Amino acid sequence: MGAEFKISADNDGRRVDRLLRTKWREIPLGAIMRAIRTGDVRLDGRKTRPDARLAEGQTLYVPWERREEAPAEKLRKAQKKFPPLDTLYKDDFLWIVNKPAGLLVQPDEKGGDSLVARALAELGWERSDYRPAALQRLDRNTSGAVIIALAGAAQRRLAELMRERKIKKIYHAVVEGLTEELGRIDVPLKKDAAANRVSPDKEGREAITLYRRLAECGTKSLVELLLVTGRPHQARVHLASIGHPVVGDSKYGSGRGARRPLLHARELIFPDDAGLPEKLRGLSVLAPLPEDMKEYEREEK
């Protein structure tokens, strides 16, 4: 006995295989692809392809039972389990939260704590065909502003703006030594996935960071960073590459001076883009510095 359902606006434009992997997470990928290939998955009554783009209002048939949505009791338990998120901005399009240091953005195990798990619990999210998604990949110990898309159209447009480098991502960091007042770091980066480590490498991917010194703090500097690109560990590796590792960073620096790398996603600036809701165009959202960085804060230049 299979299931049939209508394609919602949130899934308009998504690929068939990606929707099925989202909605039926317990079904192995091989089984999903086989069902599509043999015609057991049908779009508007016809055989389809894994990469076919869906349109709102179409009907998709699958050979599996309809998934049960999350029961209300399970949601209530999740809401009690997690503390509320620190909201910086929220509307029907997106939610911007101030992620605390020490919290993963995505769970690393089923039922584990994460920013996304807390968001789903706080929203009381029951749907399985679409899940709100975090659009940034902050490291566990990096704090600050994270965008969570609350609708499929929002996720697609915001991801596109990220790829086009039109959403400005500004960070603050406390680093070792006295930096130049202004600087540009243009050093390609290459990631070793097995070691979860990134290194400067001329064969790596383009990575550009602009910085300015905001304050001198004894033997340390408070710097503002504009990540032109968004590579994994970019800010930490780039700062270490010019001899100013982030204070507390044991992976790319000495690890001394703090219990975690003092790096904070300080501000998000949205472009004046016609694809965004009017109230988001040109909006700047600021995340207050966490307690372990406040002693370095001062009025900006």
Features:
301 residues; ten-stranded mixed sheet; four-stranded antiparallel sheet; 7 helices; 27% strand
The largest sheet, given as strand count, sense and whether it forms a barrel, is: 10 strands, mixed
Quaternary: single chain
Give the strand content: 25-35%
Count of individual helical segments: 7
Mean pLDDT across all residues, rounded?
A: 91
Task: Calculate the terminal CA-CA distance, rounded to whole Å.
Answer: 66 Å
Structural class: alpha+beta
Shape: elongated
Q: What proportion of the residues is helical, as a percent range?
A: 10-25%
Query: What is the string of SSEs from the N terminus onward?
Result: EHHEEEHEEHEEHEEEEEEHEEH
Q: How many beta strands in the DSSP annotation?
A: 16
Q: Rounded to an integer, what's the Rg over CA atoms?
A: 22 Å
Note the topology.
Layout lengths: L2 E4 L9 H8 L5 H9 L4 E2 L2 E2 L11 E4 L9 H10 L5 E4 L3 E6 L15 H9 L9 E2 L8 E7 L2 H12 L4 E9 L5 E5 L2 E4 L4 E4 L7 E10 L2 E8 L6 H8 L21 E7 L14 E3 L4 H4 L7
Parallel strand pairs: 8-15
Antiparallel strand pairs: 1-4, 2-3, 2-4, 5-6, 6-8, 7-8, 9-14, 9-15, 10-13, 11-12, 13-14, 15-16
Helix pairs in contact: 3-4
